[in-house]
Design brief:
This protein is mostly helical. The mean pLDDT is about 75. It starts with 5 loop residues before the first helix and ends in a 10-residue tail after the last helix. It has 2 domains: about 35 residues; about 100 residues, Orthogonal Bundle (Cytochrome Bc1 Complex, Chain D, domain 2).
Amino acid sequence: MRTEFGKWGKWGLALAGAMLLQGCALEISNTRPARELARLFQPPGSVYTGWRVYQDRCASCHGPAGTGAAEAPNLLPLVHTMGPRRFVGLVLQRYDWTLPPGQSRESWLEQAVQRREATLAMPAWQEEPAVNAHVMDLYAYLSARADGRQGPGRPAP
């Protein structure tokens, strides 16, 4: 027994198949809601700007990718477990520093950055304009590294 759809049956079947496929394609290609939702869970700040600040002020002790060095620990597991408020407090205020007699803050920072003297504790960066103004960018970069959203290389601007 042979079934024939007729002229309109074939077109109807083709149209229904196309609509079904188009509906799937629309669902797959509509990534806007997913991007908006992902943006809600990302910290404020620029990953690229944070990377620049990190390379300028932090990489000499914590390594160029934040994974630690002889002078300082791996930041990625630490940042992965903390929120932005705690991060800001740790970077800007937690560490008390006392300058050796006769040494200015700028010369101490320069020595720490260039590793001329071993740094015993991380400095508080609240008085450093480059870090203070971009602390949330720094957090955005390090949290992206900790979450795996950013690799060890330079992020896109």
